[in-house]
Amino acid sequence: MFRVVSIVGLGMWLSMFSGLLFAHGVNTGDQGYIQEINGVNIIPFIYLGAKHMVTGYDHLLFLLGVIFSYIAFLILEFMSVYLH
């Protein structure tokens, strides 16, 4: 029951920030590179995606939030064992 309530609560919390969740653009150096690519080139796009994930502050903050939430969940689960 706790997990259902926490998932619903998380969904409601995220909906408050839905305006901030729009996609963002590609930097100008990568735009020129993408426009010059012809045909199927999977490896360059994997590289660009990895670069975007590692250098994007929003992705790093999301990862930090996931880690923090997981640690907080583990602490609450540990505490609930002794409070039950």
How would you characterize this protein structure?
The chain is an all-alpha fold. It has a domain of 44 residues. 77% of the residues lie in helices and 0% in strands. It is built from 4 helices and no strands. The longest helix is centred in the C-terminal third of the chain and has 27 residues. It starts with a helix and ends with a helix. The mean pLDDT is 79.
Secondary structure elements and pairings:
Blueprint: H1 2-16, H2 28-36, H3 42-55, H4 57-83
* Fraction of residues in H or I helices: over 70%
Low-confidence stretches: none
Spell the H/E element sequence: HHHH
Secondary structure tally, helices: 4
Q: What's the Cα radius of gyration?
A: 19 Å
Tell me the span between the first and last alpha carbons.
15 Å
- Could you say which overall geometry the principal axes of the C-alpha atoms support? elongated
What structural category characterises the helix and strand content?
Answer: mainly alpha
Strand share of the residues? under 5%
**DSSP E strands, number:** 0
| Arithmetic mean pLDDT | 79
